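Q: What does the predicted 3D structure of Molecular chaperone HtpG look like?
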Amino acid sequence: MQQNGKIGVTTENIFPIIKKFLYSDHEIFLRELVSNAVDATQKLKTYASLGEFKGELGNLSVKIKIDKENGTITISDNGIGMTNEEIDKYINQIAFSSANEFLDKYKKDANSIIGHFGLGFYSSFMVSQKVEIITKSFKEGTEAVKWSCDGSPEYTIEVIEKAERGTDIILYIDDENKNFLEQGEIDKLLKKYCRFLPVPIVFGKKTEWKDGKSIETGEDNIINDTNPLWTRKPADLKDEDYKKFYQELYPFSDEPMFWIHLNVDYPFKLTGVLYFPQIKSNVDMNRNKIQLYSNQVFVTDSVEGIVPEFLTLMHGVLDSPDIPLNVSRSYLQSDQNVKKISNHITKKVADRLEEIFKNDRSRFEEKWDNLKIFIEYGMLTDDKFYERAQKICLLKNTDGKAFTFEEYKTLISSNQTDKDDNLIYLYANNKDEQYSYINTAKDKGYDVILFDGQLDVHMAGMLEQKFGKSKFVRVDADTIDNLVRKEDSKEVNLTDKQKEELNEAFTSQLPKIEKTEFTIDYKALDARAQPVQITQNEFMRRMKEMSAMQTGMGFYGEMPNSYNLVLNIEHPLIKKIMSDIEGKNKEAVDSYATESANIRQLIDLALLSNGMLKGEALNNFVKRNMENI
């Protein structure tokens, strides 16, 4: 006998709402239905273990089948099944206070609709014109039933014959979603959402290559690993197991540096494995590599809010039933369990880094160039992590030696403290381009840090604040005596006329470099110091570098590069030029500068030592020197 009825909703537009507002996420129907089938299977195992089910468990896999001819997808399980009463309770009775409230509150977040109202099964109507449920309960003496609905509130339910317990969900795919009848599409979704489910997921048969073509075998094609690495005990795993799992997650990737196996039962449940990958360059390219699961069901690979921002650079898997399948941004921001999980992950990462540093510092130093982006990013964005990481964060000098903050402070404090009691941290970001400046600093007995990482310029600003009475300055930001000023600068005794003459002579011979400006500066340095040097203001250069990585600082990025051409007025060559042009008018100074090989040579040598002599100017420099050989 067939029973007719209406689904228990207060309005008649539930299905149009589902179709309209969940359409952008329509692929999740398969995740929801397969997850339901897995739940039904797991419940049967539980009943059997408790003695409430005494029958044969048999084959407990979940099967997905496509029938292109009839336009259907069938999801089948041999789990607990449902009785007529259970169909009515779990499928027919969906209570909404009103469609308008529903729309206003959830229309912007499709996942929240399903998660909030328990509409996993009803996601099937996003892709179907009709859905049938054929089910038989595991309970003795129950009849099998068939439920059918065409996407309106009306449904039919009737008693049928079904030999085995379990449930078949049959989706009659609508015209807009025929792509889901393609094997490749379903295979892709199963591998995305169901790759690690705890029950075997069968999709078709395995194939083998024979006689030049792919032949279907009789063996079930199981698409998932029911016992993934993160669910196993760390004591049972070897390094090779972790590396193999990493390659399964990220084929063709370089071997990870380290990993952390998470296994928490209280006050929340969290398992997973997080890897420190080898990062070559671009930070953003390596984001969204952590996969979030809930009871082995894939949820998302956008884990901001669950994992601290700096750890989104890590790779791996997190699994927590305390984070529901359908999570919204607002949920993540307010949920206390999520905050606890985030804090715990930060602590575990800090613990692991400290452990490696203490037990194998040489290995830690060896990996530092790849590892430091995680640590620096964390220190810049998380004060609690800074407190932990400051003990293990390293400063590496241009000789390749690594020091902790305290070790480096001890190294330089006696020699690199200026007259105002500031500790001066000299750094270079390119050993080759700044070689002459590094060498000049070393000749003074100073040490130079190598700051060539993506976040080092940000670190310099933060560490100045954290350390106090400290300055980080690039080794080419000024003359070495001014960088670590031990005494007041020697007074420059030039008249305005002399400055004007020198300015004209040198400015007239500077090559034109795109988006680059030069200012002539005068310093009374040691007579043995270089006659001409090029420096760049630390603040402006730092702002320009930060603007390239940080939105909202575009103003600095658009400004031209500004350099100082520093003339050492105590050097014999500069003194001679001053003598030769003294009292001359502008035209005469220009003529002298054009004919004088010394001025062009001094400028070119300064540009060359700063990596700025290029193109025609470099060619002319080479020709001029060849002629003088």
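A (community wiki): The structure tokens above were generated from the sequence. The chain has 23 helices and 22 strands. Confidence is low (pLDDT under 50) at residues 95-100, 106-118.
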